[in-house]
Amino acid sequence: MGMNRDMMARLQQMQAQALKAQEQLNEQTVDGTAGGGAVSITVTGGMKVQALKIAPEVVDPNDVEMLEDLVTAAVNEALQKVQGLQMQQISGLAGQMGLNIPR
User: N or C: which end of the chain has fewer CB within 10 A?
Assistant: First the structure.
């Protein structure tokens, strides 16, 4: 027994909504910073790094570990923000489908 036309149309609509949500997510950006702004990173909702800026005063060849820590902290902050964007998109789609997603 095959799917009825209404169910197929609804599935196609849901797929189109999911693709549109993914495109919107890819267009959004978030920033992560560390060291009072000494290191900043911009990441898209699709988890692609758009920009990484490092203030010259934090580049110390004798303390590379500090710079690594600052970059790591900035990246982690940005990725956490991307996860928030993703959850918003998922919740929005789930709401359109009549599903409840706990936050």
Answer: N
Q: Is 41 helix (H, G, I), strand (E, B) or coil?
A: strand
- The domain total for the chain is 1
CATH code where residue 50 lies: 3.30.1310.10
User: How far is residue 41's CA from residue 31's CA, in Å, rounded to a whole number?
Assistant: 6
> What share of the chain has pLDDT > 70, as a percent?
88
Q: Which domain holds residue 92?
A: 28-103
Tens of pLDDT, residues 77-97? 999 999 998 888 888 776 766
How many angstroms separate the CA atoms of 78 and 32, rounded? Answer: 4
Number of Cβ within 10 Å of residue 92's Cβ equals 14
In a domain, 93, yes or no: yes
**What sections of the chain are H helices per DSSP?**
5-27, 64-96
5, part of any domain: no
